[in-house]
Amino acid sequence: MKKAMTFLFLLAALLSTAGCASDDAAQDKDNPTTGATAFTMVDEAPAPLPAKSRTAGEYTGSKVKFYWTENDHLWLNTGSDVIESHHSDIGDQLAAGGGTLTKVPTATFYFHGTYTDPSYILRYTGKNGTKDKVTIAAVQTQKLPLEATQIGECGDCGIATATKNGDHYDFTLRHKAAYFTLTPFSSDSKLAGGKLSKIKITADKPLAGTFNFGDAGLDIATAPAGPSQSITLNLQGADGTGFTLPAAPNPATNSATFVLPPDTYNMLYFEYSVINTVTHFPGTVTVQYFTPKDFHAGANKKFTPDIKGGVFPVRYLFSDGTTGTFAEKGSRTPIGLVIEEKTATKEGTAMALNNAPTSLYPIPNMYNGHLWDKRTVTTQANNVMFANQPDAINDMDGYKYTWDAAGSADGTTIKANSLDFPAFYVAARYGDYLTASGITVSGSMVGRKWYLPAYGEVMKLRNVFGSTLPLPTEWGGGINTFDPTTIAAIDAAFTQVGAPALSTRVPGYAWTSTEGDTENAVNYYFGPFAADIASGKGVSAYSYFAVTPFVHF
User: Which long-range contacts (CB under 8 A, 24 or more apart) does 40-43 make?
Assistant: First the structure.
């Protein structure tokens, strides 16, 4: 990544007459170039000559192309001191662009004094460096793919020998940091199309810290001050939520560039922070490599990993309407298990941590459960029925069946308020149970309505916990949805917040709001989550099932 530059030393003319002394003094205040030597970079060299080097990056798909950005500066080794440029024309060029420019291909830097030696050493130590120190940041942030404009703030650095050539000096800036551009993609349908919000790399030696810097470049033989063996690159994207993770490599979509010390790393550990496109849960995908990787000064190493799998911790809905993992709970009170996180365009969904007690229904019964339909003659109750399992598994309208008149067959009944539909009635009053239990909702949960979930909503638990078993295609109490290991994970999600395990609840089966036909509604069995529509929905000793409400947030 050798970049050719030409800087001109232009000696400013000095007036020598005493009568103009006061004018010169006034001029010096207004013109920072007076009495200074200018170092001017020439424009891009034509191919096949090497390109000029700057200090903001643009990934072209094969290399990092550099530009100058505001507040860039250089250091000049005069032989007796190392001095900083006091002015450049970068700001003027940006202003001339009318607010449309953030980087420029050429720049002129000014140093106080006159310089005539055959050659000088120049140093670039980044925006945050000093004359003999370079800080490679442990936390780096990239705003957009391809636009690695952050590198000057994250540890980019370089040196050059300027050689006198007539009335100017020519030199080639040699970058002394290494660059690592990742273009991740995912063949995993749960991740492709989602967001990648950050990448963390960890190595077996320091990746970040404040390094000594001299005329030879970075001193990696000496341990840096404030060392860190990890660098986290935050990815913002146009909407501030990260870069899109495509199904195939595409640098324009999510190329991300690190600045790091040139060295050989015997171990590299990658942690990708991603969003599950189905549940919208944040999680991580981790990969470790033990094959030594060489990173050379001034060179960009490319890597195109396929991001698959991942760990997405269970999330809870808290009484104030916020969500988080168990580790993030703090003093908040969990009231639900998140089935699907909310997004900018869609509400989230959570499952109650407890069953709705029979006391929520004002007419006592001798059974530990609730009827779906208490009418003497059970006609169609919902506006739509699902006789076969493949159709029912796509039913997501539990809220509509519970709270909307349009969700009832007659177009007028709101089952949440009707004693003819006990399961719906108690689900709608789960908030009263929370209040009686000493839990007061606040924030965005105020006014939220609990409801009897549709079968498809209950089956979204598979999205959260996965399963080694295939999706069921038929009704039947023996056709399980979850394997024993997954059942144990679901139970643990409830018990770690003080709720009863799902698989051992009594009764061991629960209603959904999905109606199969005029006599039956869909019920499922806690634990294996097998489902059927053979138990009836009306007045029968075999039709008193549990109710586990859901809520949108």
Answer: 40/6, 40/7, 40/8, 40/10, 40/106, 40/107, 40/108, 40/109, 40/168, 41/5, 41/6, 41/7, 41/68, 41/106, 41/107, 41/108, 42/5, 42/6, 42/106, 43/105, 43/106
